[in-house]
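Archive transcription. Copying these from loose printouts into the bound notebook so they stop getting lost. Printout 1 of 2:
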Amino acid sequence: MAKNTNKPMKRLTAYQLILVCITAIFALPAYSQPATTPKTKIMTLGVFHFAYHNLDRVQTAKEDMISVLDEPYQTQIATIAKSIEKFNPTIIAIERDPSSQNSIDSLYALYKLGKLAPEKNEIYQLAFRIGKELDLPKIYCVNDWGRHYANIQTLFKDSLRLQKFGNFIDSLDKAEGKELQGKKVTNIIHELAELNDPMMIKEDLSSYLTGAFLYEESPGDFTGVDFETGRWFSRNLRIFRNIQRIPRTPEDRILVIFGAGHLNILNPLIESSKEFELVSPVEYLKEALYHSLRCLSLL
């Protein structure tokens, strides 16, 4: 008779049983990950400044400025607003400092009552218009101007150093043939579609990595880098932080209306965030352009 060579299984001790259970518990997440937290959708709508404040390096000549209060621009803006409303924003954020919130609240209240005189800026023309149409209670101010390092603040107070800095930037602009004069806008819908094109936004960031960024007061220092850090990168990081501060739920949909130049920093931040999902306005603007052209063909 053959001998049974199978050894009986050893009974697990209490300690071994606990160890097996702990191992199984820690192994569970690999097979049953918790559900991903839903992200709040954000659409960034980049614009040129409708009121032509000319506060940027690129300036628009007076003869090239349009009045958005005139036709056909009012019809074009209304068409843009109607298309963007289909995104169904529940929150609108604008390029105004939080310190202006009370003022914006008052102006928006007057606008909703039809008691605010027409203004050219994009806040009146787009933010207030869309907000009223969707019956939103508030328009949020999220702008910031950044913060410079102490060495750059010192440079600003020294006229000779500042002059050398300005001469350096001007010489590079001239060598590269940079166009510092804004063009005349003929169609606002087409202009915004171009400004919000992802490739255009990406290319725009490159201009912040040349010019002033390259300036060195002495070989190997970071004068230009420090300047752009405060002027642009710090500014947009702070704007993003202000957007984060807006009370919201994953079900909310945020519309950010800002100067288009800001999108080269804001969009990558939103795309990288675990809190938000970036939505491009390009398809909405294409729809607006199609509607506008169709209306013209029917005239």
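Printout 2 of 2:
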Amino acid sequence: MTQKLIVACAAVVLAAAPLASATGQLADKKVITLAAAKQIAAAAQAEADRNNLHESIVVLDDSGQQIYFQRGDHAQLATVDVAIAKGRTALLFQRPSKAFEDVVRGGFAGAMTLPGVVAVEGGVPIVYEGVVIGAVGASGGTPALDGKVAAAGAGAITDMLAAK
């Protein structure tokens, strides 16, 4: 009887072992909540307001999907898709879309042929503890002003964490 009990216990332990090691491999992942996305967009909008801009602003998660989007009063229709594309560029390549604008200005037009690249300033990754967890895209002003708007939004994550 004791031998059967030992075998039964061993079977239970062995059956649970793959589960324990599989769950041990799961990572903690920081995500942008809807509330945080709204705060990020509000910080971007505040910068747009300071510059009298009519902007479209998007906050993307780490997979490039929209968490929050707003099109400001009087923002041109084209700004919608451009803001999203700038944000996705920043997310996919984990750098501001301005980096591609600079490369193209430097003479490497081939950068514009990379899938997912919009070589215009206005997309900025959102970085938390060295990891890109999303991005902000802005469109409606000059590229430099769109970059300031997106950077203000992306920088809001630092302010939110400091407030905790």
